[in-house]
Predict the structure.
Amino acid sequence: MKTDRTNLDEILLLLRTKHFSNLLVPGYFMKADPARIEADPVRRFNLLPDEVYLEAGAGGPYLRLTAVNQGDQLAMRVVGKITHDPGLPDDEEAEAGVASLSEIYFGEADDLPCLSLRCLLDDGSSLESGIVKFAEFTFAGDQHVSFDPLWTFGIRIGQPNTEPRFRANHPGVFGFKEEYFWSADD
């Protein structure tokens, strides 16, 4: 399977042929504050949710979802590895990392086939290039994960029935004009 591609066929091939094991969000560890180290010695991990990854198998490939066009669209890309934002804080002790959210969204499952993908599209979307307004994935075991790039702080990751809320919360200019649905049964 080729990676770092942008066309819909490559995305659907990944969804059709791989099982997913993890939902990862990049971020960084900040150095501990010397004034608070005695009271709170744990280093803080700060998420950078402008980009999230669905991991297929152990160690990829990955479906990278990125908020693009100032958070107006969601770009989906098949990639071979996780990359870190070069814009980490200007702190020599900040350390890049990723947070696993798989137990929150997948439970104890670690080998889930994707059953369907629903995308909402508008004039700024390019389905063939993997750029959509909103995406919701359904995995085996009735696990749903949605991605809304219009959230102020990056990509909002949602659970079942997020799509109707997206439609209600983003009418008019931020709304959508059409819908795309893919099913593994097709």
Q: What stands out?
A: Residues 1-5 have pLDDT under 50 and may be disordered.
